[in-house]
Amino acid sequence: AALENTSRATKLNLDDIQEIADYWSDIRPIYSQFESGLKSGTADVYKYEIPGGQYSNLKPQVDSFGLGHKFKEVKEMYKAVNEMLGNIVKVTPSSKLVGDLAIFMVKNDLTPDNIVEKGKDLAFPDSAIAYFEGMMGQPVGGFPQDLQKVVLKGIKPINCRPGELLEPVDFGNIRQLLEEKHGLKATMQEALSYALYPKVYEEYLNFKKTYGDLSRVNSPVFFDGMSEGEVCEVEVEEGKVFIVKLVSVGKLDKDGFRTIRFEVNGNQREITLLDKTYIKTDEATTSTIMANPENKNEVGASIPGTVTKLLVKNGDQVKAGQSLIIIEAMKMESQIVAPVDGKVSGIVVKEEQQVKNGELLMKIE
């Protein structure tokens, strides 16, 4: 508008721009649950050198570790970690490394002065291991040698470009795998999706197997569900519309199931579903067993999160420093390693289980 009637006029139609603004004003509340709470710019991105996109994700990540009250301390540590690493270029994934390491250090009462000594017995986040292993490239000036040794714990770093170590991708094999495992005759786009993000893409395919293609369900219904008596339209294909009405949600039975009655284009149907919020009484009263930090034969969680992978089973012989379990919290993965040599016994967690910081995971005899 400021350039109107000048030689630099943009020729943009302000009414059209306002329509776009109105559209996003209506859309934004639908996705409010994913907002970070950051409603305006902040000088912190300059003070602490935190990329803006990461800054908006950092607060919920810090909250997930129970460190919300120490957010300022984490930001100060972010700056300290950056300087400790040599003021590295911070883009994904190197910026994530700095954030993960800052949270890890605050969580474990570490500082740049004591991390080498106190970090000898700690399992560092996967992003830190990947960085010091050279999987994000070689930083100008190299790695801090003493810190690299503590983080890697015997892992041999590379000194070449990480991409040189990648095997050529065989899209034929990927297509065959997707067809055999998921019954999918993959297009090049689908094969490429798997090649880039195999875990995420398989989770997506498994979700579709369970729930079907929900891409045509409108966002409010997808995110928040329907209330009794509410009606929505679902266009399953061009010209084919289902009118769905939620009639009633039955009472919870003794096993945690509810009967859902609904109508599709006037035809009433009902299904019985497990209420995922239901917790059996005996499960609700089960107390969390914490690992004894003084007993090196008890392996505890170093962070709160979700057990994504068990790398060993009962009876396996393990060496000190060997990876046992992977725990993930807000995209930050940590490998829990064996503190001593011995035989795995009494694994008390399973994959996809939520665990607390310090919770007992397994014992080693």
Provide a compact summary of the structure.
By secondary structure, the chain is an alpha+beta fold. It is 34% helix and 19% strand.
Rounded Rg: 26 Å
Relative helix content: 25-40%
Count the beta strands.
Answer: 12
Q: List low-pLDDT spans.
A: none
**Roughly how many Å apart are the termini?**
74 Å
Main sheet attributes: strand count, strand direction, barrel closure: 4 strands, antiparallel
Tally of contiguous helical segments? 13
- How much strand? 15-25%
User: Order of strands across the biggest sheet?
Assistant: 1-2-3-4
Would you state the CATH class of the largest domain?
Mainly Alpha
Global mean pLDDT: 90
Level-2 CATH architecture of the largest domain: Orthogonal Bundle
Output the structural class.
Answer: alpha+beta
Tell me the name of the CATH homologous superfamily of the largest domain. Conserved carboxylase domain
Task: Tell me the CATH topology of the largest domain.
Answer: Cyclin A, domain 1
Shape designation: globular
Number of domains: 4
Order of helices and strands: HHHHHHHHHHHHEEEEHEEEEEEEE
